[in-house]
From TrEMBL:
GO CC entries: cytoplasm
InterPro entries for the chain: NAD(P)-bd_dom_sf (IPR036291), ODC_Mu_crystall (IPR003462), ODC_N (IPR023401)
Protein name as catalogued: Ornithine cyclodeaminase family protein
Annotated organism of origin: Streptomyces bathyalis
């Protein structure tokens, strides 16, 4: 039987604390070294694309994931699809999970981990948010579980969306202000999260104060870039995977060479690479998202759902005994 898990079940099965610990362990201990993760993207004769991420693998987890997404920026949600959780021993389809929820949650929490480790100092953050959609909201939610946030300064091309996000954060006890532009957000913040569908870069070198950290979530496909190449060259740039950042992410889109990245988030979390060499360093984290992150959350949700007997069981294929029945 295959377990079907939608957003309602996953909200209960994937609390932030458990997911943050699982994702940090995945970064520190590393995904299975082989085979290398792949992202397959196909443009469609429509305002969107199809994407497959294979295969999500982690040491010690007897399962793997394949994710199939439809990505339509003008829709809400922009990502729709499923994550297939298979038994690694025989290929059985253990579970189908709502990809929209898992993708947004693991992206937001992984971004929160990177932001927490790369942001300046250890004092409460003055956080700038550019792009006030679902992804930014989940990143703030994860970051608030890791580090105090003194104030949020938010901007969105749709002022109403920024206003609604600000109201949510105020109800959570965080002081929040709206700004009229991305540059104004940067001028008033020590840490930035950008989560947009960029048609052109939003921020340049002159917009960013010394010592600022930027987590850029919008540069996750070829040609998408929220920061100018000049700013990327000026900063200490960290990614989640060098090869994918070259083919599908910010390094390739900015025209940077692999050795121009300061390192990966794994290197920072393990202490192999310093987050900063000087207090004035500008740091940038540009993740593309990795298949093992889907597995980390999917496996946790599946095992907990088994214990709690939640979700819907569905049989896609008949058993041999049923086939042979008269």
């Amino acid at each position: 039987m295959t377990m079907l898990l939608g957003a309602r079940e996953l909200e209960d099965l994937l609390p932030a604390g458990d997911c943050l610990r699982g994702l940090e362990a995945g970064f520190v201990h590393g995904p299975a070294p082989e085979p290398a993760p792949q992202r397959v993207r196909q443009e469609l004769p429509a305002p969107g694309n199809a994407m497959v991420l294979i295969a999500g693998l982690l040491p010690g987890v007897p399962a793997y994931t394949v994710k199939v997404n439809a990505k339509f920026p003008g829709s809400n949600p922009a990502i729709r699809g499923v994550i297939c959780l298979h038994d690694l021993r025989d290929g059985r389809l253990l579970s189908l999970l709502d990809s929209s929820f898992v993708t947004a949650w693991r992206t937001g929490l992984s971004a929160a981990l990177g932001t927490q480790r790369l942001a300046p100092g250890s004092t409460p953050l003055t956080l700038g948010v550019i792009g006030a959609g679902t992804q930014a909201g989940l990143t703030v939610r994860g970051l608030a579980a890791l580090r105090p946030i003194r104030r949020i300064v938010v901007h969105d091309v749709e002022p109403g969306r920024a206003h609604r996000a600000a109201e949510v954060w105020r109800r959570a006890g965080i002081d929040c202000e709206q700004a009229g532009s991305a540059a104004e957000v940067a001028a008033r913040s020590d840490t930035l999260v950008t989560a947009t569908w960029p048609r052109r870069p939003l921020l340049d070198v002159g917009d960013i104060r010394e010592g600022t950290h930027i987590t850029s979530l919008g540069a996750d496909e070829p040609g998408k870039l929220e920061l100018t190449p000049e700013l990327m060259q000026r900063a200490r740039v960290f990614v989640d995977d060098i090869d994918l950042a070259m083919t599908s992410g910010a390094l390739g889109s900015a025209g940077l060479a692999p050795d121009e990245a300061a390192g990966t988030l794994t290197g920072v979390l393990t202490g192999a690479v310093p987050a900063r060499e000087h207090d004035a360093d500008i740091t940038v984290y540009c993740p593309v998202g990795l298949p093992w992150q889907d597995l980390a959350l999917a496996w946790h949700a599946y095992r907990l759902a088994e214990r709690k007997r939640t979700g819907v069981r569905f049989q896609f294929h008949s058993t041999q005994e049923e086939d042979e029945a008269p």
